[in-house]
Amino acid sequence: MPENNDETRSSGEGYADPAVEERHHFAERRDTGFPSKPPVTQNNPNPLIWIMLGVLALAVVLFVLLLPTRLYPVEVSGKYGFIKRDGSVVIAPQFDGASSFSEGLAPVLNGNSWGYVDKAGKLAIAPQFDLADPFTDDGLALVGTGGKLGFIAKDGRFAINPQYQAAGVFGNGKAPVLINGKWGYIDKKGAMAITPQFDEASSFSEGMAAIRIGNTHGYIGKSGKIEINPQFTVAGDFHDGRAVVKTSDRFGYIDKEGKVVIPMQFEAAGDFNDGLGLVGLGQRFGYIDKSGKLQINPQFEKAASFYQGLAAVWVGNRQGYINRKGEYVWNPRA
After folding, report:
1. Who has greater pLDDT, 34 or 283?
2. Residue 45 belongs to what domain range?
3. CA separation (Å) from 136 to 2, 68, 317, 326?
4. Which residue has the higher pLDDT, 322 or 54?
5. Which of 39, 122, 169, 250 is the most buried if burial means most Cβ atoms within 10 Å?
6. pTM, whole model, 2 decimals?
């Protein structure tokens, strides 16, 4: 499944190591049930309490109704479409490739070109790119054309013209770019925000970004200052206050102070999302909670981190989706 979203990684072919995947590309009204006028007696609460409860219940209902519909890419017989969280098909499989929805749009592949569709399945940005990542919270998407990478806005126009041989997606207002063999960061206008100086750099997440100096990885803050000294052989992005790291031949997790909070014990590991972290043991993938306790036993040959309540998993070459309880909402199918 050609997911190219840095936030919703696939574990790759075979028993992959999701923490070391390539980060840089070339270039989802009901009745409240409260009585309207409860009788006022010594045995009944004050009417004001009922009013306040009714307002609170209505607010909860409106919040749920106004939540955006989450959609997830699926493959059926070689074509890609999108399902809702309950597994119902919303956009019929018709594309040659697809990635995740973000900011109301999702990259889709038609033939050899990538474009973007809205949640009705209508093309919002015509297929024209060699590569396309999902939009980020910063409102920009990394795309590739003509051998170079640049960034587009949601209207499909270039906000930063294609000019980079390698780049990462925007996060916290900055994006990593490769210039003359070193990685630095640009702002949303394309101006250099952190001078190119790193041998490798990832996107910012939760105010920090993994970088490599020489053979070891550490973390910088938004100013570019080193916050966690380079000391790891692999370093992932921060999510849910945790980042996957590797020392020697095992993976574990650190907090934002660089303290190991889940010991180095896993053969492979991926990002935390929705309170669960992807880990590999015994050639199978499962999920742990933030204390390191297994919540979904290792059983999948390939798996991705959770994204908005669901995680893509593979049994053989068949892809499915599970919820946080480990239950299938979309059974594995080819």
Report:
1. 283
2. 32-67
3. 18, 16, 29, 27
4. 322
5. 169
6. 0.80
